[in-house]
Each structure stands twice: as C-alpha cells, then as structure tokens.
Amino acid sequence: MPKTAKALLQLPPATAAAIEKLGADLAVARLRRKESLKTWAKRMGVSVPTLQRLEAGDPGVGIGIVATALWLINRDGELGNLAAPEHDQGAIEMEVRAAVELGRARAQASADARTRAKKN
User: Fold this and answer.
1) pLDDT, tens digit, 9 for 90 and up, residues 70-112
2) DSSP readout, 41-97?
3) Which candidate, 12, 61, 19, places its Cα nearest to that of 41?
4) What helix, strand, coil percent values describe the chain, rounded to 5?
C-alpha cells in the first residue's frame, strides 16, 4: 500500500468530515456561479473526474488543486495563515510550559544559592 493511501486511511474523522464539507462548499460555490463541471475543470486545469473527486471531498486530491479552486472563488488568501507559527496553539503551549519550567528551575537555583550563602 502506498504511503499516501495509508496516511489517508488514518485521517481523523473530524478532519475527513471537514474535507468533505470543503468539497461540498466548493461545489456550491461553482453552482452559485452557474458554472458547469466541464467549464470549471477547464478553468482549474484539471479533468472533470478530478473536479468531481474534489467536490466529493476525496482527501487524495492534491493541495494545489484545492488551492486553485479556492483561488477561483477568491478564498485563497487565507492559505498563508493556516499553519502560521503565531496561530500554532500546540507549539505556543509547549513554549509556555518550557518557560514555566525554566522559571521554576531558576527560582530553585536562587533559593539554593541563598541557603548556601546563609550556611557560610
């Protein structure tokens, strides 16, 4: 089994549901613009079956194709912020925990130094 297929099988259910919703939302955006599958696929530079897979929420559709679909509806601007470090809550929490631990270690070192100074 290819690595990609295995990764797709391990998608968390909420993530798979979000991809399906994105595909459905992209289909609605196309339909609201009264564009056919054939015309929209041509504008995206993909085949009709690929566009159908995208709109069906197939997680195997390439990110470049998703980005192009978002561009067509003027929603590609947010792509640069999706994984921006300033929005990475998990990393921020890790840094805060490390800072708290450093603070505790420094406070303990200061307390130990004061205790040693009193003994001398």
Assistant:
1) 999 999 998 989 888 888 888 889 888 888 888 998 988 888 8
2) HHHHTS-HHHHHHHHTT-TTS-HHHHHHHHHHTT-GGGGGGTT-GGG-HHHHHHHHH
3) 61
4) 80, 0, 20
Q: What is the pLDDT of residue 1?
A: 47
Report the alpha-carbon distance of residue 51 to residue 2 in Å, rounded: 23
Is residue 4 within 8 A of residue 11, CB to CB? The reply is no
Helix and strand totals (H; E) in the chain: 6, 0
